[in-house]
Amino acid sequence: MTVWVDASAGASGDMLLGALVGAGVDVAVLQAAVDAIAPEPVALRVEQVDRNGFAATRCHVELPDSEHHRTWRDIRSRLTAAPLAPEVRDLAVRTFERLAVAEATVHGADPMDVAFHEVGALDAIADVVGVCAGFVALLGARGGQVVVSPVAVGSGTVRGAHGKLPVPPPAVAELLRGVPSYAGPGAHEACTPTGAALLTTLADAWGPQPAMTVDRVGVGAGGRDPDTHANVVRLLVGEAAATAPAPPLLIESNVDDLDPRVWPSVIAALLAAGASDAWLTPIIMKKGRPAHTLSVLTSAEHAERVRAAIWRHTSTIGVREVPLAKHALEREMVEVEVDGHAIDVKLARHDGEVVNAQPEWDHVARVALALDRPANDVLAEAIAATRALLRERG
């Protein structure tokens, strides 16, 4: 399972809750997790809304009147004791721990004693636990990968418990250290501390949508509805798509200043480095100088080692590379005998029909030497034995 989180308009806990419901997670799953942790009654209410032309799911977190601030120590105790699934508890603990450490860093306090203020209020507790439960339900028993886009953080200022703050607020900037973020389309707070903590806890990777076959799309709405952009978080859910193997590479260089006696050792070193083939082509370079084009065929996996072998064993100071399309026939090795000596023969098939049969020349030369016979004679007998074998097979 792969989930891509499009946070190009920002992210908050309630936006992620709405996106999860839109992606097919039963709101009852989220509500059950919230009920297990919330110290006071908290209800999740879902409605369908429009955000600048996007049909989206808005998840309201309905709270009782409460101004009670809680420390990370208080919240951790509740999470430890709550009847939550282990995976949900682990995600929620790690998310709140990130929040505590970020708040402690920007305020110079002990993380365990940080008073979360609005971040640690009932709505944030519900957001964090609900979103964690939703992602566990979404990914299922097999688990999967969560990839998050660069995060829009907004711009301007925002009023918090400590007065007017720049956007991104200090805690958000701290939480998003080391991950891609940018201002985004709106002149307001686009990513909340809760949203930043959730994204950085959930993310396995950051970047654009990976190769995937999308099965479900969830669109979660934020509270604002600006006319500049759709204030939504999107979840694209599906299976990772099989990616085509990287094409083989043709690496070439023109060399005019290498002793020709060195070339056999160069070819051997390239094959040892992982090249599937290597060859020389005589050429005439500028000023009429005779030279060779060194051509090497290799896979992307071995390309770096092949380049290193070129630098080490030749006098060139530059190479050119071209990706290639390769079409190969189905191959099979068979064995024939000439005067009691085994020789391997490579068969090539097209649509099941043998279109080429070539005895291995090293085997032919070895048998010719053992029998003290001309190699051409041994080769002819090996080809005849191969034809007889193919006739027997029908």
Descriptive notes:
35% of the residues lie in helices and 29% in strands. The protein is α+β, with helices and mostly antiparallel strands and 394 residues long. The protein has 3 domains: 2-240, no CATH class; 249-323, Transcriptional regulatory protein pf0864 domain like (Alpha-Beta Plaits, 2-Layer Sandwich); 330-393, mk0293 like domain (Ubiquitin-like (UB roll), Roll). Strand 13 (277-284) and strand 14 (290-298) form a beta hairpin. Helix 3 (72-81) packs antiparallel against helix 4 and helix 8 (263-272) runs antiparallel to helix 9 (303-313). The two termini are 47 Å apart. The mean pLDDT is 92.
Distance between the termini: 47 Å
SS-based structural class?
alpha+beta
Largest sheet: 5 strands, mixed
- Average per-residue pLDDT, rounded, comes to 92
What's the number of structural domains? 3
How many E-type strands? 18
Q: For the largest sheet, list the strands in their spatial order.
A: 9-4-1-11-10
Q: Order of helices and strands, N to C?
A: EHHEEHHHEEEEHEHEEEEHEEHEEEEHH
Helix fraction, binned, reads: 25-40%
Q: Looking at the structure, what is the overall shape? A: elongated
Radius of gyration: 33 Å
Low-confidence stretches: none
* Percentage of β-strand residues: 25-35%
Q: Figure out the total of helices.
A: 11
